[in-house]
């Protein structure tokens, strides 16, 4: 088997030197294990945080050790009860072509009639982040004016569509005209191209009455613009701040004091907080997909060799919808 190893900790945007694709000697199966041939590997912005030597909600990747991440594959060998060759499974043994895993850490894909890679996208972490972040963390309600950043990305494009399905007004931001056209095609009422004008100016024009909800994927100037445009008792779901993941210094905020006057409620969250509610999630998302209200967009990069490029592409906006690596 082959696996991508972290060879050194990146300073800023990761370079080729930070990674190496190395042979991995996989052991014979112990009792209760499965061998999985991976078919789809996920690249996600949060992985950048695991490349730093800091304690967070997931431990850092170790130097000269294989990295891990979400993956979907097929069981090829099993010593675990209930798992058989041919089973499609979701697990965290990504960044590699084959994995030996304790069956306890492996989930069989529920039979929802979806493509297997959907469980890395709208039926996986991505969709759950959008669903719980919008409806639970931000308490978004029909009639709310919702602003979502990185709206052409995996989480953002799901937020746009869920918000529209639930009767909200949606303003999405993205970088470039093509991405903005895509966000509009998902049903957004307004789109802001943050590369064509400062986000504050664009958001002020798109939301003359202000915003009730901000779903933050970006941080920095986007978050500052949301402070500036927040209406009374606005709710901010702080999902991610990708703008800062490759920076050593935190962003500065000009409008942060509006938190007080506008009684803004800001809440950070991690999607795993909602793990116990996956049944509800599959039911609700399954319905939105079945009724055509939630479509999945994917950007697929072929070949494990190209995985670091796919990962870096998240920071240059190479992806429309969910970025995936296909083996
Ligand atoms: P995306 O598919 O949204 O990919 C990242 C996108 O971010 C890019 O396509 C790019 O879009 C945009 N982007 C990159 N750099 C910048 C920048 N400097 N300024 C503005 N936009 C930028 O990734 P995901 O959907 O997987 O993740 C979206 C966010 O959600 C991330 O912040 C991630 O960390 C977070 N997240 C949080 C989770 C949680 O549990 N809290 C779980 C999953 C994700 P463009 O071309 O428009 O710039």
TrEMBL record:
Oxidoreductase keyword on record: yes
Pfam families listed in its UniProt record: ADH_N_2, ADH_zinc_N
UniProt keyword annotation of Oxidoreductase present: yes
Lineage: superkingdom: Bacteria
Keyword tags: Oxidoreductase
InterPro entries: ADH-like_C, ADH_N_2, ER, GroES-like_sf, MDR_fam, NAD(P)-bd_dom_sf
Enoyl reductase (ER) domain residues: 15-325
Protein name: NADP-dependent oxidoreductase
Annotated organism of origin: Sphingomonas sediminicola
């Amino acid at each position: 088997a082959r696996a991508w190893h972290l060879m050194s900790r990146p300073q800023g945007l990761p370079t080729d030197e930070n990674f190496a694709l190395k042979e991995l000697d996989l052991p014979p199966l112990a009792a209760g294990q499965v061998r999985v041939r991976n078919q789809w590997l996920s690249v996600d912005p949060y992985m950048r945080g695991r490349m730093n030597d800091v304690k967070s909600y997931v431990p850092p990747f170790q130097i000269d050790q294989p990295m891990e991440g979400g993956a979907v594959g097929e069981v090829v060998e099993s010593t675990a009860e209930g798992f058989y060759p041919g089973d499609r499974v979701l697990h965290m043994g990504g960044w590699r072509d084959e994995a030996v895993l304790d069956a306890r850490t492996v989930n069989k894909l529920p039979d929802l009639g979806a493509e297997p890679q959907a469980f890395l996208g709208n039926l996986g972490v991505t969709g759950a982040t959008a669903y719980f972040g919008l409806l639970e963390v931000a308490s978004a309600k029909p009639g709310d004016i919702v602003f979502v950043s990185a709206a052409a990305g995996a989480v953002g494009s799901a937020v746009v569509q869920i918000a529209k399905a639930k009767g909200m007004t949606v303003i999405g931001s993205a970088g470039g005209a093509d991405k903005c056209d895509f966000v509009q095609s998902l049903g957004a009422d307004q789109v802001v191209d943050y590369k064509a004008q400062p986000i504050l100016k664009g958001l002020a024009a798109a939301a003359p009455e202000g915003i009730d909800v901000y779903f933050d994927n970006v941080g920095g100037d986007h978050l500052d613009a949301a402070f500036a445009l927040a209406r009374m008792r606005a709710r901010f779901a702080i999902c991610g701040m990708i703008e800062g993941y490759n920076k050593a210094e935190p962003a500065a905020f000009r409008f942060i004091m509006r938190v007080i006057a506008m009684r803004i409620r800001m809440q950070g969250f991690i999607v795993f907080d909602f793990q116990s509610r996956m049944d509800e999630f599959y039911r609700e998302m399954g319905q939105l997909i079945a009724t055509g209200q939630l479509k999945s967009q994917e950007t697929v990069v072929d070949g494990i060799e190209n995985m670091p490029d796919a990962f870096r592409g998240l920071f240059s906006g190479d992806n429309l919808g969910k970025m995936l690596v296909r083996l």
